[in-house]
Amino acid sequence: MVLLSLALAGCGGDHSILDPAGPAARGVAWLWWGMLTAFTLVFLMVVGLWLAAFRRRGHPVRSAAQERRLGLGWILGGGILLPGVSILLLLAVGVPAGQRLLPLPGVEAPRVIEVIGHQWWWEVRYPHAEGEVVTANHLAMPAGEPVDFHVTGADVIHAFWVPRLGGKIDMLPGRVNRIRLEADEPGVFGAQCAEFCGAQHAHMQLHVEAMERDDFAAWLEARRRPPPQAEGHDTAREAFGEHCARCHRVEGLAEGTGGPDLSDIGSRATLGAGVLALEEGAIARWLAEHQTLKPGNRMPAHDHLDAETLEALGAWLETLRP
Amino acid sequence: MSETPHSASGDAREAERLHRELAAVWANPRGWRALTVVNHSTLGLRFMATGLVFFLLGGVLAMLVRAQLALPDQAFMAPGIYHQVVTMHGTVMMFLFAIPMLEGLAIYLIPKMIGTRDLVCPRLTAFGYWCYLFGGIILFSSLVLEMAPDSGWFMYTPLSSAEHSPGPGSDFWLLGITFVEISALSAGVELTVSILRTRAPGMALHRMPLFAWYILAMALMIVVGFPPLILGSVLLELERAAGLPFFTVSGGGDPILWQHLFWLFGHPEVYIIFLPAAGIVSTLLPVFAGRPIVGYGWVVAAIVITGFISFGLWVHHMFTVGIPQLAQAFFSAASMLVAVPTAIQIFAWLATLWLGRPRMALPMLWILGFLIIFVCGGLTGVMLALVPFNWQVHDTHFVVAHLHYVLVGGMLFPLMAGLVYWLPLVSGRMPSERLGRWGFWLTFLGFNLTFLIMHWTGLLGMPRRIYTYDTAMGWDLYNLVSSIGGFMMSAGIAMVLLDLALHFRFGRPAPPNPWGADTLEWSLATPPPPYNFASLPRVETRHPLWENPALGDEIARGEHALADASHGRRELLGGEALTGRLREVIHLPTNSWWPLAAAACLAVVCVALLVRLYPLALVAFVVAALMLLRWSWENGAHPIAAAMGDDEPEAPPLHSRTHDGPGRWTMGVALLADGAFFLSLLFGWFYLWTVSPQWQMPERSPLSLPLLVGAGAAFTLGALWLERRLRALRAGEDDGLATALFAIAALGGLHLLLGAALLWRAELAPTASAHDAVLLVGLLYTLAHGLLAGVLAGLQGARAALGLVGARLPFEPEVVALLWRYQLGVYWILAAALGLLPRLIGGGV
Amino acid sequence: MRRPLPRLTAGHPLQLVLGLTIWSLWFVALYGGLSVACAVAPPAPTQGAMTGLNLWLGLLTLATLGLLGWLARACLTAAWRERGRTRFMAALGAGLHLFSAAGVAFVGLPLVVLPPCL
């Protein structure tokens, strides 16, 4: 009852299971409301009967045989029949519902997007014959068609979960797991690592953006080319080569590995896997304060760099948008 | 009622004389020697008191967590500290509170309920307590040192492995928990044997109090359920300390193996906690309904079903790891199946209330609270068993809410009911209704405020174990409410504890059997004397006190069996497991320093491993083993135990003069635990072999076939010889027994020698490949058993030479023979699995 | 003075664990068989639930069901015949065998619907 009244208060939010935006999540949301209704009735019945047993006045005199029959009736009815029928129904609903979520072989093989969990950021790869596109902490996908996500973990176990689209799947080092999700309409959805993965598990969010099929194609195409080189920013490029390029990649400039690919960082929604919104000056702030904003993250502190350099780096990185 | 007229004062004098005589044998020593106490009442209370302390500490941790999550973007605790606190909250509540608390309750109550004077292995009880205390202190000290484990209470690898958790936190967890589990296992073993073998004469299985059924199931589940986690902990510690890659993909291991081993233990654990609590409900509810429980047989069936099915559910904690959907469906269906036995119990209780005349008293209030919360938790549990729904809410606060509903509702509330109910037995005073009711309502409302809303927080997408959240998520209000509820619940618990503390001083004195109960513990004086029953009654009903309210007086007057302690032995009656028919008089060991000393040595092992002083660990381990062996020496006809003499009973005889005393059962149940450990190891081997992503089976098995067979042959020869000597012993022949036992021990030594050569020649590279690492552990396992079997046979030889074992004292070789049979089976199975099978199938798989 | 092994009768305490032990062994065989088969030779996902693997596991399920049903019947008839403790054990055994049989049927149901290795 409390839950129901809360429900009126809203099921919304970027991460809400109850505000589904795809077929898989919708199925589960319906399951939830159905189970909630049925089980609330069961709950009220059981507790009601117990309370009634306490409140009863006037106990009829019964023979031992009558008592035994009555007791047996309670146990058979409530202990066997009630749960028996309930779980049979539930299995009958649940197994087909689960089956629909399976990546069954269909007519057309869906698009594959690879997601790799790192402590504490997301690497997203779009395999393509004409060259792979790699982004970080930002996942674009076409709306209105199923997409197969192939997920794995780079270091520890993470879990890939876009609550408004559907269930989660673990990202295991050494294994590739698959999950099929679909977004009904273009939109932006929150996603968060769902398996505890260490100190910054809380700050491991992924910005998921579903787009029209054509927009998605264009989005990919734009990232297949090196980012445009803005005028000036030479000191920043130099500093980047010196201090950042070992871990970070920028298409056409640096081939670092270990940290997020920064080729399109200027076009992202957030920094630090959801710590800061990407506004003007945000990157410079992140570079200066990232160990305060997200303590323990794997990027070393930049105390040895002066504020000017950091600001120059931030300004240049903001220009990296396809 | 007795026919002969007694004079009241004569009765009282006789009861007093008997009390003094028994007390002289059974009373606890004071001062420093209180550390040597082995009495089950004392140790049960120590278990519970210690458990209560850890409960409070765990509760403080919970409040720290709620304080951090009360508001968004809180910096009350740094993430590192927060994760230590969260991990320790779960660990402390599960391993240091719930299990030991319920064990303590069972240790305290079971002998009193089944009509006997103590548990069958009193020194083991003491040993278990010290292991629990030391393990708990070691584990909790990590938090004080700010080095606590921080990878969540289920310690998933690789997060908990050396690479990703380089500090000693994980080591504290693995070593501390393993240490504590020794205590759970020892309690499990001895509770099983006590319930089966020391019930009051005439108390056939179907007349046993339901509580004993529940505890029997719990004890057996501990025996089978804890070994997988012990194995997992040993393997993970070996990986962390020595680099054996059991859970590392690149070395051929698999992190999912840890999850299987953990949840193979972890899910039964939930029922290990729930069953005794349900046992409390099944004991109290009929008392307050004023009638026997409806459907005794149904409830027993429900207990057995729960005990089994709970071992078939573990994968429902792993629905998101990518197991085939069909396999998930099996586990989903099995998880739903467990709703049936639970519903049977709930409706049996309901029918009991319906057909009885229920009285409302403080314990019943807690039971009603239990019902409401637990039914709710059970229903969300059925929801979670549904795979697609599980995929959405797994690892969110929905699960956190569910598990608290099940554990707090299913364990804490019945426990509180039980504490209030049995308090008068312990203290002789009644708890306060007024303060108690306040405590109940605050706890109940606070609990629901915290956790009912948390379901919703989870559905809105809040994952568990995040140390902070952004206000944009829309979770602020719900978290704040949860935190307020949490503090309210704490206030309730504080009030309950205040009542508990005050009642010892201000409670009104309890009349005998204050609640009008039917079970034997209420026939005792309050507080009960150290020997419980001055004389041991025959019980042929499920409700002894309802049928004969004067039973307590009869017992105190010594009108029943064994009303004599002039021989100075601690004696109780042993019966047949099924019928309760009288079989032997069991003599128990008395107070001793050995349990404390051995546990202290093991604590040194634990600390030495933590600080990586391996030589010290080895020395302390050897000393502990020697102490345990020395402890086992004081047995049978040893003067400290029960020397041969004229004052020993003939019919029934003392157990050490028979072939099948309770010690043999203890060994049997202990080997059951050992077997569960071994099966887990075999499971690990086959799991890695078939499923691990980068497993590498070498072209040629490194195990030399001749040595493998030779070592086995030596042991088989020894085992067969031992069996022959046992047959002769049963026929009353003990000529040359000592020599034969020495020779058998020598064959054990040869076995060991060949086994060591096998290991040596294999030239394993255990740090490079999981294959070699498993081989190493498997071989060490069987060699350790070979060593123990050989040493024990040798000691038996020495005892035979000293006249402590022989035709009149045939008991101990029978116990040792069980170990030999076990090792015989295990060795050949292992040889087949590790040495032969890869040769037959080849390394291709 | 060794007694011969007690005959396995309906009143034997083994009835307390036999049915569910069979259930457990069946469950292990089912899960283990499926896992190993999927690791070694997974059938093509296009076959849906109509694979040889499902068939074999289904046959195993039916056989277990038959065995448990037979045991339940044996215990049930004994429970009608006997009195006292033996009756208690036999009735309990019958109930447990029946539950195990229902459990086998229930847990085995998804075999009909789901493809084995996805």
From TrEMBL, chain A:
<dbReference type="InterPro" id="IPR001505">
    <property type="entry name" value="Copper_CuA"/>
</dbReference>
<comment type="similarity">
    <text>Belongs to the cytochrome c oxidase subunit 2 family.</text>
</comment>
<dbReference type="GO" id="GO:0005507">
    <property type="term" value="F:copper ion binding"/>
</dbReference>
<keyword id="KW-0408">Iron</keyword>
<dbReference type="InterPro" id="IPR045187">
    <property type="entry name" value="CcO_II"/>
</dbReference>
<dbReference type="InterPro" id="IPR036909">
    <property type="entry name" value="Cyt_c-like_dom_sf"/>
</dbReference>
<dbReference type="InterPro" id="IPR009056">
    <property type="entry name" value="Cyt_c-like_dom"/>
</dbReference>
<dbReference type="GO" id="GO:0042773">
    <property type="term" value="P:ATP synthesis coupled electron transport"/>
</dbReference>
<keyword id="KW-0349">Heme</keyword>
<dbReference type="Pfam" id="PF00034">
    <property type="entry name" value="Cytochrom_C"/>
</dbReference>
<dbReference type="InterPro" id="IPR002429">
    <property type="entry name" value="CcO_II-like_C"/>
</dbReference>
<keyword id="KW-0249">Electron transport</keyword>
<feature type="domain" description="Cytochrome c">
    <location>
        <begin position="231"/>
        <end position="321"/>
    </location>
</feature>
<feature type="domain" description="Cytochrome oxidase subunit II copper A binding">
    <location>
        <begin position="108"/>
        <end position="222"/>
    </location>
</feature>
<dbReference type="GO" id="GO:0016491">
    <property type="term" value="F:oxidoreductase activity"/>
</dbReference>
TrEMBL record, chain B:
<feature type="transmembrane region" description="Helical">
    <location>
        <begin position="43"/>
        <end position="65"/>
    </location>
</feature>
<dbReference type="InterPro" id="IPR014241">
    <property type="entry name" value="Cyt_c_oxidase_su1_bac"/>
</dbReference>
<keyword id="KW-0349">Heme</keyword>
<keyword id="KW-0812">Transmembrane</keyword>
<dbReference type="GO" id="GO:0005886">
    <property type="term" value="C:plasma membrane"/>
</dbReference>
<feature type="transmembrane region" description="Helical">
    <location>
        <begin position="172"/>
        <end position="196"/>
    </location>
</feature>
<keyword id="KW-1133">Transmembrane helix</keyword>
<keyword id="KW-0186">Copper</keyword>
<protein>
    <recommendedName>
        <fullName>cytochrome-c oxidase</fullName>
        <ecNumber>7.1.1.9</ecNumber>
    </recommendedName>
</protein>
<keyword id="KW-0479">Metal-binding</keyword>
<dbReference type="InterPro" id="IPR023616">
    <property type="entry name" value="Cyt_c_oxase-like_su1_dom"/>
</dbReference>
<dbReference type="GO" id="GO:0020037">
    <property type="term" value="F:heme binding"/>
</dbReference>
<feature type="transmembrane region" description="Helical">
    <location>
        <begin position="665"/>
        <end position="691"/>
    </location>
</feature>
<keyword id="KW-0813">Transport</keyword>
<dbReference type="GO" id="GO:0015990">
    <property type="term" value="P:electron transport coupled proton transport"/>
</dbReference>
UniProtKB/TrEMBL annotation, chain C:
<feature type="transmembrane region" description="Helical">
    <location>
        <begin position="88"/>
        <end position="113"/>
    </location>
</feature>
<keyword id="KW-1133">Transmembrane helix</keyword>
<protein>
    <submittedName>
        <fullName>Uncharacterized protein</fullName>
    </submittedName>
</protein>
<keyword id="KW-0812">Transmembrane</keyword>
<keyword id="KW-0472">Membrane</keyword>
<feature type="transmembrane region" description="Helical">
    <location>
        <begin position="55"/>
        <end position="76"/>
    </location>
</feature>
